[in-house]
Amino acid sequence: MNSTKQRNLVRGAEHWFDKGVEAMDCRNWDYALECLGQAVRLEPSHLESRKQKHRSSRRRFGRRGAVPKVAAVRLAAIRSRIRTALIRDDWLNVDKLAEDGNAINPWDAEFYALIARAASRFGNLKIARYAWTSAVKLEPDNARFYREFGGVLQRLGDYELARECYLRIDAIDPTGQVSAELVAAVDIAAVIHDGGYSAAESTRDVAMDDPHDPACDGIEVEEERLDIEHDIREELRQMVTAGETHVQAGRLCSALECFQSARDLAPHNRSIRRRHEDVELAWLRQQAVTAQDEARFHATLDEPQQTAAARAKDLMSRELQIREARVAESADDCLAAFQLADLYRRGSRFTDAVPLFERAAGDEDLKAESLIGLGECLIHSHKATLGHRYLLTALNMIEAGRKPNAFKLAHYWLGRLYEAQNYPDQAELHFLTIARLDPGFRDIEHRLSRDRS
């Protein structure tokens, strides 16, 4: 776009913005929305136009409520066009359509999320930050929103707030490892940005080549040291940034190479080591899933089945090695204890899992999930009475809406316990509770049909 046309667009946007603000002052919300919508279309990068447009939309409706039928039909059409635009990777149109949807329903968090994603694509990070702030206010328990919001904050260099976003994911789902991985990544970025990386002896040895050389006085040595540290820090930043870019694009093998290079530069940095391990596990998991898909597709062939079994074994072996090392390294890390206990549980090592679940239960956020794990392990260890007690305690701590997976799991194992003890009616009550929330959960459908027959 030539400079004259750009100037004309900016002037036009300013004109419509001024008219929109005047209409807002007169509380003419319909006209304000129309004017400010024009301003946004002419100059999408102007943050204030979007803010005032969204404010006008909210004031126009007065309060949050049910969407009228006519508006619902229009919104359905907009969402259909958004899906088409997303398939075509047409983010300009996605942004425009999301703004149109916001004008009809300003309390739909997904429209703000789409505006934020489009802004990120075009490098308008301030708009992305504003839109994500609005989205998480409307849906404070959406972990996906916090993950993307944290990424924008990290790109803006606001590492503390990015870390808070990732910790919010941990509050929503304390049993997952996603939050821990993201916190590690943002900590690495912050450390590199501040220059406090721990490359330990490797960089110090280079910087202090020969302290007794008479040709080097103290000032020259210090300047040389600072230059070397700056170069290493810059190279480290590039490696970590490239690694994270590859992770986001799903190129895990390339990401592994970048993080290995970062570890070579800073061999004593625990955050970089852990991030490298997390990416390695993700890559092994990806390999295992691909092998399983191949095995299902070629169900009659032996080789795909053997490959799938070998990939699963490699993943389990490496994950055990990493999780056990982390528990040994940080005895008070309840999340690490929970993750290792869950790994033992999946590997049928129930006796080994019990003390780790007990340790993790000391964390209030992990307590309910840890008690469920304890209950399951004790049932398998022929301590049904104690396991039953733990499951009931956990169930009393859980709200189905806030922790649906934990809620279903507690009911599942209580149902299995009653089933094993030949109390079919009690077992059916627990299975029906799960079926009302998620009919496809595990083997619920099969167990209910068997109980009724």
Question: Could you explain the architecture of this structure?
Answer:
- With 453 residues, the chain is an all-alpha fold.
- It has a domain at 140-194.
- 79% of the residues lie in helices and 0% in strands.
- It contains 22 helices and no strands.
SSE layout and pairings?
Blueprint: H1 3-25, H2 29-42, H3 47-61, H4 69-87, H5 91-104, H6 109-121, H7 125-138, H8 143-155, H9 159-172, H10 178-194, H11 200-207, H12 218-248, H13 252-265, H14 270-297, H15 302-329, H16 334-346, H17 350-360, H18 367-380, H19 384-397, H20 404-420, H21 424-437, H22 444-452
Helix pairs in contact: 1-2, 1-3, 2-3, 4-5, 5-6, 6-7, 7-8, 8-9, 9-10, 10-12, 10-14, 11-12, 12-13, 13-14, 14-15, 15-16, 16-17, 17-18, 18-19, 18-20, 19-20, 20-21, 21-22
Features:
about 450 residues; mainly alpha; 22 helices
Q: What characterizes the major β-sheet? A: none
Basic shape: globular
Number of helices: 22
Topology, number of strands: 0
| Overall radius of gyration | 28 Å
Q: Strand pairing plus helix content: what structural class? A: mainly alpha
Unreliable residue runs:
195-228
What is the rounded distance between the termini? 72 Å
